[in-house]
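Entry for ME8 complex. Fields follow.
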Amino acid sequence: MKTFYVTTPIYYVNDVPHIGHAYTTIAADILARYHRQLGEDVFFLTGTDEHGNPAARAAARRGVTPQQHADELVVKFRELARRVNASNDFFIRTTDPEHARVVQNFLTGLYESGDIYLKSYKGLYCAACEAFYSEKELVDGRCPDHGTVPEEVEEENYFFRLSAYQQRLLDYFDRHPDFIQPASRYNEARSFISQGLEDISISRATLEWGIPVPWDESQVIYVWVDALLNYISALTYAARENLTGRFWPADCHLMAKDILKFHAVIWPALLMASGYELPRRLFVHGYLLMGGQKMSKTRGNVIDPFTVMDTYGVDAFRFYCFREVAFGQDGVISLGGFRMRYNSELANDLGNLVSRTVAMIGKYLAGRIPDVSVDPAESQVAGAAATSTSDMTAAMLRIDLSGALEKTWRLVRLLNKYVEDAAPWKLAKDEGSQAELAKVLYELAEGLRICAILLYAFIPDTSVEILTRLGQEHGRSSLALTDAGTAWGGLQTGVDVQAGAPLFPRLTD
Ligand code: ME8
């Protein structure tokens, strides 16, 4: 069976989760659900990055230990995954003892093979980034991400021979032009490598909150090395059996551009050094922006995803994020934009279409899906459904999530136009048009069934509800995005539809 392994970054616990975290988790969930619909064996991993300076500082500010702090904050991140309806197979915490063991064994291997060595180091360190910067990387002497002045730090650290992997990385990039997407991010990473790589410090002597270096417990392992290894450590203890052979290499690491360098340079080099295969693809999405700026805890311009979901529902939130912003590009989001799309697309285009279709089947056909079959060659809807399905599938395989949603929405719009053009309410008045009426309502219901399958990965609860309203089964096989599952004519006939409250009540105030 084909497998699919998708990951989100593991999130820092120095503050509560925000909408950017929700965005990546939902994106990963969409991919996981979609690949399950294809019948693949899927593993979806998310979790929290709990070591390092920012978390330790946040704990100190609150007067609790870093572990207590992480134990409290992780609850919110787990809650976020649950609330966005993430179907993750595991939630990793870097404070899991099983993770620490894998990290230590991994580094011991590199130490023994000579890829790690001890050196005295002096550099400019941004504690918020957990990273050293060279003078030329700073903007007016300040961290490009946080706008703070980095501290000058001198310590004896263990170093990883990243420089030794420069040529191998370049060769790998050349042989795998799809390694990083979008292509602009591939080019950015490749050009960074080709400008020359320096060895990196992979331990800290001044920090206590981290995984001890196994051969020198006076140091802890650099939080980024600890964090990156989550993608392989989780497979060793997420289930009773070790899943590494089944799921590694990962098919897709999702992230935003802030952490591209770590994933595109350090991570592949660490894997090469220890003989692991590299992940098949990194997909780098854009930033959600509020008022033109990246949302960040430091800037304080964050939208609380919990409030949005409490007010408008989880599917509306999932839908908006991937409808409004082209996946892979930065995009501005706002509450006003959200409400507009909610009303025009979810309440009107989709919700109203479902209500009208079910109501008309109720009124004109005694509430039962008509027992007819409509030849696809004679249907206005069948061709559009097939085109949307194949276009949506092609977009999903490119990880163009917003493109996939747009291809599906074409079908939703076509169905709306079809109701208006075919005007079943007129056919109902004419004795001689009863066969035509049954045909039109069948086509609408069948079109909606196919929409529900195409939309499932994006708005799972709504899709299941649409199938329920249409009297259809909604188990795994009914949602399969296979040729058979989406083939025209799969609608169960002779079953009773179920009227219900609007799927997306219109927002008025
Ligand atoms: O970097 N728009 O954790 P983090 C879109 N622990 N996505 C956003 C976003 C925004 N405005 N803000 C954050 C870390 N994200 C490390 C990762 S992985 C081995 C270690 C998302 O809590 C996006 O996926 O700062 C980004 O890459 C990630 O959150 C950073 O999360």
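NOTE: The chain has a mean pLDDT of 95.
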